[in-house]
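#lab-general

N.A. 3:47 PM
ok so I finally got the sequence cleaned up, no stray characters, all 275 residues accounted for. can someone with queue access submit it? mine expired

B.Y. 3:52 PM
send it over

N.A. 3:53 PM
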Amino acid sequence: MDAKQQCQIELELYTQFGSAGRKIGGPKLQDARGVDGNPHLLVVADCWTNQVNLYRHHKGEIHFQASMKLTGADGVLKSPRDVALFGDKVLVVDGTANVRVFKDENGVLETTYTVNKGSKVNLDCIAANVEGDYFLVADKITNKVSTHNLTKGLLRTLDVGITPAFMTFNDGKFAVSDHEAEKVCIFDVESGAMVSEFRAPSVRGVSFHQRSVIAACSDGLFGSGSLRQYVDGELVGKIADGLFFPQGMAFLSHDKLAVADKTTAKVFRVRPLMS
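B.Y. 4:20 PM
back already:
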């Protein structure tokens, strides 16, 4: 078995909720776009309803917990695009210059962090290290990814050369996808050096799994989505097919993958593909 075969995985649908699947309470999903989570918590951004929903995973069951909303002087969430767990916080970007910081146990706004004050900014995707040391945001206007710390502020900025639509982070590297250029680029966080790039037709969301990249792909027609696995930039094959319109993805653990699939959130079991 070669190195690429060792990385190959297969997926099995574990659960889904929203317009189809389990009834777990909470708002209906209408345009699930961003998702993040861990073995105990799942967070889904709904771009249509202007809400971010928290779900708890306990003893094999997923339950709705809370919706994050802004009121009064805090303004409103403007079509939340992406989310990231950040220590005990949830970070949300909504196409403005603001990163909203919520407490993960109750969905209450803690603070608002603003990127490039006074400049026109469109923060469309976000990724973070789980320990809460720093996070990365991608600006679709400048095609730049910047690294931030909530107390220290801006750490560094990198021009990624494509229009970032989705982003993922793992083990010192981050990947950005551009569905119009049909490309995925992977960078080292510290040095900013490009590690690799590859063509991925119809690519939208991306997520890391060991040495491979999992890509959510859709040719623009509802019901035509798939998940594909790339190892070292080479397409290994489809690992899920017949999705509605998959966008954001996140590994909740080494054996669970969550997918924001327009009107549903799906969780797949991840297994090594044995030869």
